[in-house]
Structures are given as C-alpha cells and as structure tokens.
Design brief:
- By secondary structure, the protein is an alpha/beta fold.
- The protein is 48% helix and 12% strand.
- It has helices spanning 2-10, 17-43, 53-61, 101-107, 121-146, 178-192, 194-200, 218-229, 248-262, 289-304, 325-328, 344-355, 366-371, 378-394, 402-414, 425-441, 479-489, 491-500, 508-523, 557-584, 586-599, 604-611; strands at 49-50, 65-71, 75-81, 87-93, 111-115, 160-162, 207-211, 233-237, 266-271, 311-317, 333-338, 451-455, 465-468, 601-603.
- The strands form three sheets. The chain has a six-stranded mixed beta sheet.
- α9 (248-262) packs parallel to α10 (289-304).
C-alpha cells in the first residue's frame, strides 16, 4: 500500500502543450547564450597589441622578438620580450611582400611558424548568433500571439471544447425553463440512442435556435444539453468567425464542423449567432463580404452534414428578427426554442440555487425576494445574490441576511446610492416635493402598481426615485394601467408646479417616458378612439445590418395631425388628473415631503402610516379615454 501511495505521489500533472513549447524555446535560447559565452572565453586569443610593421622591424633588430606566426603571408602575430623579461603578444600586418624578412628572422634566432587562415566553428557561431537570436525572438512572439502552439492558425476554429474532464452541467443546474428543456430532451435522447429514431425513420433537427432576452440562460441550457447527453461540447461565439482577413471566417467554419465530425457524437454551440448570421444584402454600410462569405459557408456546412453524423448544432440569439431567412429554413435551424424570462416560481428556484453557494441567514425570505424582483433574468438574480454577499462582507458579517439581499435588490433596480453627493437644502427640498408627487399618486390611482420605496438619496443619475413593483407577473397591460402610468409620470412635474409655481429639469425623463407610452398607445396599440385600432409606422425601430436604412411613413399628413392631436389630448388629460389629485391632497404632499427631508428613504409601510391608510387606496378614479 505504501509503495502505491509513493508512486502516486511521484506522478505530476502533465503540462499543457503551450507550456512545454515555451520551455523548449527558452532552453534553446539559453543554450545559445552559453555557447556564445564559451566562444568569447575560449575562442578569442589573449588581448594582443596591434603594432605598425615598422615598429615590428625595429623590435626585430633589437632582438626583442621571441616568436612569430605568419598567416597567409599577410598577418603576423607573436611575442615580444620586454626589458624585465615579461612576454607580450602582438599582431601586425605585412603591407608589402618583404623577401628579406625570413632571413632577418633567422639571423635573430626567432622561432617562425606558418599558418593558413580558416574559420573555426566558434567563429561561425559568433557570426550567426545575432541572426539566430532574431529568428528565435520572432518565433517566440508568434507562438505567444497564436497561443497553444498554433502558429499560422488564422483559419483554425477558436471553439472551446468541453468534455468529461470539465465539470459537467446538467438540467438540475438550470432552474425553471421546463418548456425549453422538454424541446431539447429529443436532442439528448437522439445523441444517447440514435437507433430508436433511425428505426422509426424520424429525423432529428439539425439545428436548434435558442431565442431569448439577455441573461435568461441560453448558454447554460446549451451546456446542460451536452452534459445530459454526456457528449463533447464545442462553444464558439459568432464574432469569433469574422476577422479582418477575407476568407478566415469561412475557413474557421469548415474547421469547426470538421472538428465536430471527428468528435461525433457532439454538440456545436454558436453563441450570439446574429453577429455572423444577419440578413445578407443591403443595410447600414452596405454588404459585408467577409461576414456574408462566412454565413454562406455556414449554410453550406449545415446542408452538407446529416444528423447521422451525430453532430447537433445549437445557437443562441436575442435578435431572431435580423437573422437571414436561409438560416431558419427547415434543414438548418429546424426548431426555435424560446428561453423566456423566469416567473415567480422559477425566480425562487434560481435564487435557491445561487444561495446554496453562500452562507444565508434563516430570516431570508426567498418567496418575498422572488415576488419583489419581477422582470429580472437569471443573470440579474445571480448578480443580486453576489451583491448581497458583498454587502455582508463590507459589514464584516459571517452570514448574509435579508437586509443585505434588499440592499442588493435596490442597488440593481435603482442604481448605486451616491451618499457623498452634496446637495443644497433648496434643491433637496425640491427633489422631495418631486418624488412625493410620484409616490402619493400611487395611492389614488386604481390601476397603478403598489409603491415599493421612495427616496431622495441620489442613485445612478437620478437625484431621487419612487419605485413601484407589480404584485404579480404580467405579460400584457390594460388601457387603465398605461393611463395611470402616465399620470404617475407627471406626478413630479405637477407637484413642482403646485408648490413652486414653476418646474425644474428633473422632470425631463418623466415627460419623455409619458410621451413614449402615449405615442405607442395611439399608434401601435389601438387605444385611441380618434384613431382606432390601426398600427401606424415603424420608424422608431432600431436600424440593423440587413434591414432598410429608411423607414417610410405609411399614413397621410392628415392622419399624422390626428395622431399628434390624440397624443396631446391623452397627455393633457393625464397631467390635468395629476394636478387635480395633488392640488386636493396638497397637505399630504407637503407632509410626505417633510418626512423625506428627515429620513430620506421611506418604504410603502412608512408612507401608509404617514397617510393613515392601512390597505388599498383612497380613491377609485377611472381612466379617461381620448
């Protein structure tokens, strides 16, 4: 047993190829330096003094030359005997053919030898060393740029391969998304047992497109699909295909699918497919030859392989509307799976998964947090849990409590509190009046969402904030809710007008929000009696590659005037209602503003206590149709 343990301890983890290659390059580099030093030490002669030929003849006549070596009858080196008997080496050059030189040397008894010039290995190495150093330096730099010993690998795929050696992700790690999982179970079943499908003559989709908002977990679901099927998983971003060199993207597509076939059965996942799969042809900036060539190659590759090869392509995008139709036809991305935003129960499950990784106090109400975070994605919830842990660390806690999660939620929903910002009392009072106007209207409008918190602590770019949260997940909005939303948006503007007789620039964003809602109500949602249920114009949509640059109006000037009049009527009615309620409730408005000046932040329960309201709302006033 002990011998086995000793042997196992002697085993060291194998180094990656890139590290091995770098070590070999450094070994060669230092070996050359050592050889160069050896040459300098042994290859060079002792330091010799070069003397004129005339001086050499003078020393010869005086008998001070001990020995000489004549090289190619051009050069002479040798030793002189000094006055104190010390020897000194010298060199000189014969400027002309001296026929009497040998006789004079013999007469003086000088030891004479001859030599033919040659090039020693050390001398060759010395002359080539600068070139060798230069080539090695360039080679090392290219290896560093290419990485992983892939010199000249521009056309190679940059896909990352996840296999059994990595920590597998399964559907147990993905909370919610039951419908998406159900759609992908067929892919998993096929990769595990393809004979069952072949026997029935059924064809599994070649490609599955995951569609959803950012942060909903598309990449995680793709990894979990590969983990459930226990097959290799190639992960590559759409932007990795396109480079400045023409043809590189197409080459990487070919290499990616070639690698997939070698590792079959496997899953190829292309994230952000819209980066390479946008509609070909016209658009902002015209066509993009390299991107289109890459897309064409991808279309060819997806046509060129069969599901019998055991390669399934998954892709993710949050902009399916800009994808080329050829990508979405049957035979390529046969199936689209919507990865939706999580509902209350799914948010609760997501929070539990992320909370399991940190120490959480018993007072943390996961159900309450899930209900207080409508419209948030899985990534938002993961960020909230992490922020809560950071808040606990700042307070030197050993466990994350409910107040830490609430602080993290407020930070994500409202922005970072800027407590160091110095605001004059007059401006702070104006902000309190403004936010009190927003907050107070929540208790007088029947269709508005409940107030969550009102604060005059600057957060983000706002000097104050009145935040409301819906009681439940809602996927469509009524006319009454939208109208009350406009009224609340005008609450700050109306409060400033009532108290000060003038308004500030703080209402700019509120006015913009109210106008945007009113415009969509009239033009897109058919909520105006004067215009009717007609969709008019799409010029407000963003411009993307592969879409028309200019969006034309599909209605007349007379209709445009009616639209403007309907929008103006709707906004005027909402502002009038806000002014009416806040004028009638001016005492409550000022009391709420005074309270905000004292403690800066009020919860819904604090406002209700101040207003003397336990549950529900004060007045049931209906919305006005325009």
């Amino acid at each position: 047993m002990s011998d086995q343990n000793d042997n196992s301890n002697d085993k060291r983890p194998e180094l990656p190829p890139a590290v091995k290659g770098n070590r070999a390059a450094l070994a060669v580099f230092f070996s050359l330096i050592v050889l160069f030093g050896v040459y300098l030490f042994f290859g060079q002669k002792e330091n010799s003094r070069e003397i004129p030929y005339s001086s050499f003849l003078s020393y010869l006549d005086l008998g001070e030359v001990k020995s000489v070596r004549i090289i190619d009858q051009r050069d002479i080196d040798g030793y002189l005997i000094g006055k104190n008997g010390a020897e000194m080496s010298f060199t000189t050059k014969i400027p002309y053919f001296d026929s009497e030189l040998m006789a004079r040397l013999q007469n003086k008894g000088v030891s004479v030898t001859g030599a033919v010039s040659g090039t020693s290995p050390f001398q060759i190495l010395f002359e080539l060393t600068p070139w060798i150093f230069g080539f090695i330096l360039i080679w090392i730099m290219m290896r560093q740029m290419q990485g992983n010993n892939k010199a000249f690998s521009f056309g190679k795929s940059k896909a990352k391969l996840y296999n059994d050696s990595e920590k597998r992700v399964t559907f147990d790690d993905v909370a919610g998304q039951k419908e998406a999982k159900y759609e992908l179970m067929e892919v998993i079943d096929y990769l595990k047992n393809p004979k069952k499908f072949v026997k029935m003559g059924a064809k599994i989709p070649k490609g599955v497109l995951l569609v959803g908002m950012p942060g909903t977990g598309k990449t995680l679901i793709a990894k979990a699909t590969a983990g459930e099927a226990n097959v290799p998983f190639f992960h590559m971003s759409g932007s990795d295909f396109v480079e400045m060199f023409v043809g590189v993207g197409a080459s990487r597509v070919r290499d990616l699918f070639e690698q997939g076939r070698k590792h079959a059965p496997c899953i190829i996942f292309i994230d952000e497919l819209d980066a390479v799969g946008r509609t070909r042809g016209s658009g902002l900036g015209g066509g993009h030859d390299e991107r289109e060539q890459t897309l064409n190659q991808m279309l060819v590759e997806m046509d060129g392989f069969d599901t019998k090869d055991g390669v399934i392509v998954l892709a993710a995008t949050n902009r399916p509307d800009v994808l080329d139709p050829a990508l979405l036809r049957p035979g390529r991305f046969d199936r689209q799976v919507v990865v939706a935003m999580p509902d209350v129960q799914e948010r609760k499950d997501i929070l539990k998964i992320h909370m399991s990784k940190i120490p959480v106090a018993e007072n943390v109400d996961v159900e309450r947090l899930a209900r207080a975070t409508p419209g948030t994605s899985g990534a938002d919830l993961a960020n909230m849990v992490n922020e809560a842990a950071l808040f606990a660390i700042r307070k030197s806690k050993d466990i994350v409590e409910m107040e830490d999660f609430e602080d993290a939620r407020d930070k994500i929903l409202m922005g970072v509190a800027r407590k160091s910002l110095v605001i004059a009392d007059e401006e702070k009072r104006s902000t309190a009046i403004h936010e009190s106007g927003h907050a107070l209207l929540h208790y007088f409008l029947p269709n508005s969402d409940p107030l969550h918190k009102v604060t005059i602590v600057p957060r983000g770019r706002a000097l104050g904030l009145a935040l409301s949260l819906p009681e439940k997940d809602t996927y469509s909005r009524t006319y009454g809710w939208l109208y009350d939303r406009i009224v609340i948006s005008y609450g700050g503007y109306a409060a400033e007008k009532i108290v000060y007789g003038e308004t500030t620039t703080g209402a700019a964003q509120d006015i913009k929000q109210a106008t945007e809602i009113a415009r969509k109500m009239v033009r897109e949602w058919g909520m105006s009696d004067a215009i009717g249920p007609v969709s008019l114009g799409d010029e407000e949509e963003p411009i993307f590659l592969g879409r028309e640059i200019a969006q034309h109006k599909d209605y007349s000037e007379e209709t445009a005037r009616k639209i403007d009049a309907a929008i103006q009527s709707l906004l005027s009615s909402a502002l009038e209602k806000a002014m009416s309620i806040l004028t009638r409730e001016k005492d409550r408005l000022l009391a709420l503003a005074d309270r905000l000046m004292q403690i800066e932040t009020l919860e819904d329960s604090d406002v209700r206590t101040l207003l003397g309201l336990q549950d529900g709302k004060f007045v049931e006033e209906g919305a006005v149709k325009c």
